[in-house]
Design goal:
There is one protein chain. By secondary structure, the protein is mainly β. The chain has a single domain, classed as Beta Barrel (Lipocalin), CATH 2.40.128.20. Helices cover about 5% and strands about 50% of the residues. It is built from two helices and ten strands, in the order ααββββββββββ. A ten-stranded antiparallel beta barrel has the order 1-2-3-4-5-6-7-8-9-10. β8 and β9 form a beta hairpin. It is globular, with a radius of gyration of 23 Å. About 15% of the residues are buried.
């Protein structure tokens, strides 16, 4: 009795063989992104932080103080995810989530910001200063001084040291001048 065995290459669940088996056009395999200095800069944010700050909720009124914690983790060395917990100025608990990464095609930092106290999704686009100490993230969002109005804003992250950074938020006024609306000091927990 003569039996001939044919070896069949097993199909991968994900990959070229499975794509070809399903009749889908072949695509280039996904390449792992190499860390760039901009992405390495973002990794300085990774860790456990406490923060305290002040926010101007209404023009002409004194700033209100707030405190909280932030946990920042890396996603594959390409992105950071920062989740903050604290008390809102004026009272009430708040949770915030910031994502940041670097888009080498745009040569810009990109990201998002959301908070449990608002319905707006803030989209970031920004860059580092020449000394690579300050990241300015441009965005657009609700004007806190005029209901229903949108305005240009920016969040500025400045490293004072490896264990101390400052986040300052600005809004562009009708007069064309940037107005500081929030400043928070973050300190790394050892």
């Amino acid at each position: 009795m003569n039996t001939t065995q044919t070896q069949t290459k097993p199909k991968a669940a994900f990959g070229k063989d499975n794509v070809e088996a399903r009749g889908v056009a072949q695509q280039e395999p996904m390449m792992m992104e190499e860390p760039q200095r901009q992405r390495q800069w973002l990794q300085k944010l990774v860790g456990e932080w406490t923060f305290e700050g002040e926010a101007t909720m209404e023009s002409g009124k004194p700033p209100e103080r707030f405190t909280g914690t932030e946990s920042v983790r890396s996603l594959g060395g390409l992105w950071i995810l920062a989740e903050g917990q604290g008390e809102m100025p004026g009272g009430g608990p708040a949770t915030t989530i910031m994502t940041l990464g670097y888009d080498p095609k745009k040569e810009r930092f990109v990201g998002t910001f959301i908070g449990s106290m608002m319905t707006h999704l803030w989209l970031y686009d920004g860059g580092l200063d020449a000394a690579e100490k300050v990241l300015t993230l441009n965005t657009e969002g609700p004007d806190m001084s005029a209901e229903g109005k949108m305005t240009r804003s920016k969040d500025v992250i400045e490293f004072k040291s490896d264990d101390h950074r400052v986040l300052t938020s600005y809004m562009l006024g009708d007069d064309g001048k940037w107005r500081e609306v929030m400043r928070a000091h973050y300190r790394r927990q050892k």
